[in-house]
Give the backbone structure.
Amino acid sequence: MNKEALAAFPNAAWRKSSYSTATGNCVEVAPTTDGVFVRHSKHPAAGTITFGRPAWISFIREVRMGGASANGSATVSRIGTDTLVRSLQTNVELRFDQDEWAAFIAGAADGEFDSLTKLAAVN
């Protein structure tokens, strides 16, 4: 986890896709001045992956298209029906089940995570 970066934003406004399940377990994101933090809402202690603005834009595009990862911050791979998001800068790996990842993809497809300004306004 990038503890220094996360410590700089102790009141980060975490948000999930509007498609999250009733249990609320999902990919959780929070805007920063330079990008976005990502964590698993069910396992926040598992760590946080930090994306700069250009990497976040690439990541969201990749999520929508289901293509190969080229964002420079994290890779996305499948383990059975689960999705693994692995940081390229730290040892953080976030594993999401099929429903959790599907909710994130649906939100991304609807543009819920397109801009940091939009994210900050929702919170």
Summary: The CA atoms of residues 13 and 111 lie 18 Å apart. The radius of gyration is 13 Å. The chain has a mean pLDDT of 82. The chain has four helices and seven strands.
